[in-house]
């Protein structure tokens, strides 16, 4: 087993190649009547260019997507952004359908170092997620900026949200803070769906998780996922998700 595979399995035991994750989303979607032709995809990943591969895979499977992306994958588009995306959805059989993908990201390099990655044209190691690494640096220095900075809106909003869930005097590592970001993103996604989805005319699927950049490609550890059909929330069983992923796929 490679150093990357060992680290990925230790920290993200449910991780699967990102193409398998996207294929599973299509298979699950079909069970609920969602297809690329009758659904609009809404993608909330980090703005980092490293996230482009997963974004491209989602668009290749589901069609052109509405971009919800923010630093660390946070959903800062608000009600207006969600409602704008909904207004672009196809109408099929009198209903609109939306599929959401929302998650933070993290890198693991070939030596198994968490947070480390290589970037084309830049010598030496780089990091991902840079916004979360910056937050951790401020946290460890006990100087986290919590006042909203109009010249750094997304980072200060990110730090405000993370400080809501970081226990006093606790110093998490990058894996832990990435998981905290995933929980925040999932909670925000569910809240925005409740605020903006009209159950009389629309249904949706929601997929959360953690995107992982490896030296040989991308992976996703699926997180809580669910459907809202005719106004009823239906959790997507992790076992059903795994069953849709090709046997033997993994880090």
Q: Please count the beta strands (DSSP E, at least 2 residues each).
A: 11
Unreliably modeled segments: 247-251
- Overall mean pLDDT stands at 91
Percent helix among the residues?
A: 25-40%
Instruction: Find the CATH topology.
Output: Beta-carbonic Anhydrase, Chain A
Report the biggest beta sheet as strand number plus sense, adding barrel if it closes.
9 strands, mixed
The gyration radius over C-alpha positions equals 18 Å
CATH architecture: 3-Layer(aba) Sandwich
Q: What proportion of the residues form beta strands (DSSP E)? A: 15-25%
CATH domain class: Alpha Beta
Description of the molecule:
The protein has 251 residues and is of the alpha/beta class. 38% of the residues lie in helices and 23% in strands. The chain is built from 8 helices and 11 strands. Helix 2 (18-31) runs parallel beside helix 3 (52-62), helix 2 packs across helix 8 and helix 4 (78-86) crosses helix 7. The radius of gyration is 18 Å and the shape is globular. The model is unreliable at 247-251 (pLDDT under 50).
Write the layout of secondary structure elements.
Elements: H1 3-11, E1 16-17, H2 18-31, E2 40-44, H3 52-62, E3 65-67, H4 78-86, E4 91-92, E5 95-102, E6 105-107, E7 116-117, E8 126-127, H5 130-140, H6 153-163, H7 174-196, E9 202-214, E10 217-229, E11 232-235, H8 238-244
Parallel strand pairs: 2-3, 2-5, 5-9, 6-9
Antiparallel strand pairs: 1-10, 4-5, 7-8, 9-10, 10-11
Task: Write a short abstract of this structure.
With 251 residues, the chain is α/β, with parallel strands linked by helices. Helices cover 38% and strands 23% of the residues. The longest helix has 23 residues, at 174-196.
